[in-house]
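User: Just a sanity check before I run the rest of the batch. Below are the structure tokens for the first item. I only need the designed sequence back.
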């Protein structure tokens, strides 16, 4: 956050904040807000202010902050161990001439899964915004670099960051659907973000491909994913979709004059604690706002966690019933 604060401070032109104290506060506030995926800004329009919406270095700095914050502290620590060991071995070989030593596997399966999934989601989100909004919200950016930077920022921020450098309400339906999916997936476990988490989504995707190939196990990078992880991922997805469907139905019934897509966007954003909106939040009545408050709370705590807290836990089971296959599809 301190490093991000320094970069933000120097990326903002002097004329935007003539007062040094205001400039320092802006840098500190947005660095903390970005790394913690809060999405809050002390500007009335956030980063969509005319002074910032074309500031491409600022966009990259803020993007990297909430990407690192969304990876999770365990992932960052585990990967930093690997990098430190890798660099240390190369330096030792350079100084002594001895070959690098082999060490046990430092980067665990969760780290690999999170990094690969995050990379794919960043790429898909960026390309989708570029394709669907090249002549839409990106048209005000006259250079290809400006459009790419804005598309990158817009494709990354739905994963619970909440900042916006475009008019989200002006996005077309295809782009809105992509943003909905990115908001639903969210960040990674143990991070500052929300959503069902990247590992849940990736385990579900791996399960689909394993089932399609008639494999009895889910394997990834020479490791088998446990059945407990698969069951938890399945339960998380089912409960979240059921809860989101219920939330959308309640808010839509309370606000019948607002389109269903915008209501769904608001509920998905609340569930994943993203903070993005198509501009309807101010139009909602108090009952609908209270419903969104409940959606935000349950989305952050997790519907599965709440269900576990209410159900009596089975300590042990000394029996097993005969197995029987159920017809699917």
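Assistant: Here's the designed sequence for the first item:
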């Amino acid at each position: 956050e301190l490093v991000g604060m320094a970069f933000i401070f120097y990326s903002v032109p002097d004329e935007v904040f003539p007062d040094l104290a205001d400039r320092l506060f802006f840098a500190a506030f947005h660095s903390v807000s970005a790394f913690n995926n809060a999405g809050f800004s002390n500007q009335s329009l956030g980063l969509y202010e005319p002074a910032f919406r074309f500031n491409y270095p600022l966009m990259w700095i803020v993007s990297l902050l909430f990407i690192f914050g969304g990876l999770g502290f365990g992932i960052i620590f585990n990967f930093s161990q690997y990098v430190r060991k890798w660099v240390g071995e190369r330096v030792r070989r350079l100084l002594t001439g001895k070959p690098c030593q082999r060490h046990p596997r430092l980067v665990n399966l969760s780290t690999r899964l999170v990094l690969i999934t995050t990379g794919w989601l960043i790429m898909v989100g960026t390309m989708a915004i570029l394709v669907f909004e090249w002549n839409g919200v990106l048209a005000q950016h006259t250079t290809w670099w400006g459009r790419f930077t804005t598309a990158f920022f817009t494709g990354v921020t739905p994963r619970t960051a909440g900042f916006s450098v475009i008019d989200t309400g002006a996005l077309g339906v295809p782009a809105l659907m992509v943003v909905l999916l990115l908001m639903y997936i969210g960040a990674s476990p143990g991070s500052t973000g929300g959503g069902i988490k990247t590992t849940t989504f990736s385990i579900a995707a791996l399960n689909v491909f394993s089932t399609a190939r008639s494999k009895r196990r889910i394997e990834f990078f020479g490791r088998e994913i446990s059945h407990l992880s698969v069951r938890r991922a399945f339960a998380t997805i089912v409960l979240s979709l059921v809860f989101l469907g219920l939330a959308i139905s309640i808010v839509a019934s309370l606000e019948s004059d607002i389109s269903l897509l915008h209501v769904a966007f608001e509920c998905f954003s609340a569930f994943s604690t993203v903070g993005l909106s198509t501009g309807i939040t101010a139009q909602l009545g108090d009952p609908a706002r209270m419903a969104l408050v409940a959606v935000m709370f349950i989305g952050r705590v997790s519907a599965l966690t709440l269900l576990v807290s209410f159900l009596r836990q089975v300590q042990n089971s000394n029996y097993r019933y005969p197995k029987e296959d159920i017809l699917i599809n």
